[in-house]
Amino acid sequence: MTTKELRNRADDLPRYPSGAPHRQDEASKDGARKVNRDGSRVTQCAFVLVAIMAAGPKGICAYRIYNAPDAPFRDLSTCRARISDLLKQGKIAKKGERVDGEAGVKVNLWIAAEYAPAPEPDEPDMFGDRAPRAVLSISKPMHLEALVARFRAQAS
Asked: Are 109 and 60 in contact (CB under 8 A)?
C-alpha cells in the first residue's frame, strides 16, 4: 500500500462519537469502517437503547438484548460493543447490580441514563470516567414506540 493510500485510509474514520470507536490496530479500524459505511452501528445502537429503555429501572443484561427477537447482532461481542458505545455516549449506565450470565459469570445490568442515580454533590470522579448524561437521538426514523412496547410486554 502506498503512503497516499495509507493516509487516505487513516482519514476515512470519523472521530467518535460520530464514528464507531476503534483501537489502533488495523483489524479494529476495518471493523469500524464497515459499521460506519453500512449503517449497522446506528441500527444496532438504536436496538440496544430501545431494549434498555423498555427494561426500565430494573435493567437488562447483554444476553437478553442479544437473544431478543429480531436482534441485529451476529454475535454477543457485537451486542456488547454497542452497549459500550452507548455507555461512552452517556445514554446508558450500569445499574450497579449483576446477575448470572450464560457462561457462569456475573454480568452487568444496564439502565437508561434517566434511571441512573445522580452522583452525590461532593462525590469526586476519581478516574474521570463518568459519562455525561445524554438525550436520545437517532438519525434514522424508527418505530421506537412499537419496539419499546414489544420489549415491555416480553419483560412482563
From this structure: yes
In a 10 Å sphere around its CB, with 0-12 CB exposed, 13-18 middle and 19+ buried, how is residue 108 labelled?
buried
φ/ψ bin of 126: left (φ > 0), alpha (ψ from -120 to 50), beta (otherwise): alpha
Q: CB of 57 within 8 A of CB of 29?
A: no
Q: Which residue has the cell 479494529?
A: 28
Question: Whole-angstrom distance between the N-terminal and C-terminal Cα of the chain?
Answer: 55
Q: What is the pLDDT of residues 97-147, one digit of tens each?
A: 999 988 899 999 999 999 998 766 666 665 555 555 544 444 444 556 666
The pTM of the full predicted model, rounded to 2 decimals, is 0.65
* Distance, CA of 76 to CA of 34 (rounded, Å): 18
66, 79 contact by CB (below 8 A): yes
Domain 35-118+131-155 has CATH 1.10.10.10: yes
